[in-house]
Design a protein that fits this description.
Layout lengths: L2 H34 L8 E10 L2 E11 L2 E3 L7 E9 L2 E7 L13 E7 L2 E5 L14 E9 L4 E10 L14 E10 L16 E3 L8 E5 L6 E5 L10 E4 L9 E9 L4 E6 L2 E7 L12 E2 L6 E3 L2 E4 L4 E9 L5 H9 L6
Parallel strand pairs: 3-4, 5-7
Antiparallel strand pairs: 1-2, 2-6, 4-5, 4-8, 6-7, 8-9, 10-15, 10-21, 11-12, 11-18, 12-13, 13-14, 15-16, 16-17, 19-20
Length: 341
């Protein structure tokens, strides 16, 4: 090798060494940059939107069937922040939560209401919080939910609003619904203390006077129970039905409660088989204050007391539907088996 060739080789080697150092520096910088900037998680929501009439004017009810707990921007509560809007052509309304709305975030199984009055466009967590509702113009509106952190559209629904209604009503009317859950006890269901009675699968409302329905156990936890209150019944206990099936520990049960306003009936199913049923007044269900609680090892708040109705076990596939399921569909859903956790 000549001296000139040796010099060229040294130059090439130096260049390659410099490039290698640069590449390593880029890799290291990227790693450190990746550690310094955390990945952003986008909220997951499974929601529905339905038009409602409050004080003779339109509003939109949003129901969170499952997903993440989220906060209502610009408020700072539990969960990733989201914002809400309604759009119809050039008309767009952005909604701000009323003070005190959803203090623990918007949780699965609970509802929000989008409404408008002379002061602005608002999000409320109960019908009773809606004041001086002026409604929206007739037409097809798009309800959008955006994850503020990631600036990502995570849910969108089309609702047709009619502006006015038949007249003010103290309670919104629900025509049919179904609630289902898979449940398993991890210990003997028999209560050893008063706060373990009526160990709850699902409870909507925090007292007997303002719930819409409950899917739970009897006071001795020896049977499943489906209970509800309608407008005609007023407050109080309302009506309830029990299963003939008694839960035992370590066994999964598929429990379904169905309310059908048109014939005025309610029915309870366990593992796809109807256990009991009864006629009820068909005037529609009394509204709850927007509380939807699910039992667990810490219990729930009931009649103002925390740690009530403690349930030690597992719950999967908790869902509510704005329709009354038939016996064949319920049996088919049971036959499909236990959903993934």
């Amino acid at each position: 090798m000549t001296r000139s060739e040796s010099g060229i080789s040294e130059i090439i080697g130096t260049i390659l060494a410099i490039l290698l150092v640069i590449a390593l520096a880029v890799i290291i910088a990227s790693l450190f940059l990746g550690w310094a900037v955390p990945l952003q998680k986008t909220a997951y929501l499974a929601t529905g939107a339905t038009p409602v009439t409050i004080t003779n004017a339109s509003a939109v009810r949003l129901f969170l069937s499952q997903g993440d707990t989220v906060s209502l921007a610009p408020a700072t509560t539990s969960g990733l922040p989201v914002k809400f809007s309604l759009t119809n052509g050039s008309a767009t309304y952005d909604f701000v939560p009323l003070p005190g709305t959803a203090p623990n975030g918007w949780q699965p199984g609970s509802s929000l209401v989008l409404f408008r009055n002379a002061s602005g466009s608002w999000v409320a967590d109960s019908m009773e919080s809606v004041t001086d509702n002026t409604g929206f113009s007739n037409g097809t509106w798009t309800a959008s939910i955006v994850d503020v952190t990631s600036n990502v559209l995570i849910a969108q629904h089309t609702v047709y609003l009619t502006g006015g209604g038949a007249g003010p009503s103290p309670y919104p009317v629900f025509t049919g619904f179904t609630v289902e859950a898979w449940v398993k006890w991890n210990q003997n269901p028999a209560p050893t203390a008063d706060n373990q009675k009526w160990a709850t699968l699902v409870v909507d409302g925090n007292t007997d006077n303002n719930r819409r329905y409950q899917l739970q156990h009897t006071s001795t936890n020896s049977n499943f129970e489906f209970a509800l209150v309608t407008k005609a019944m007023g407050g109080g206990i309302g009506k309830w039905i029990w299963s003939t099936t008694s839960p035992v520990s370590g066994t999964w049960y598929y429990v379904t409660g169905v309310y059908n306003q048109t014939p005025g009936t309610m029915a309870l199913y366990v593992n796809g088989v109807q256990q009991s049923g009864t006629n009820v007044d068909s005037s529609g269900l009394r509204a709850s204050p927007g509380l939807f609680q699910v039992g667990g090892p810490a219990g729930i708040i009931f009649n103002g007391n925390p740690g009530q109705r403690i349930f030690t076990g597992n719950i999967r596939g908790l869902q509510t539907y704005d329709r009354a399921m038939g016996a064949e569909e319920i049996a088919s859903r049971f036959a499909a088996g236990l959903p993934d956790s």
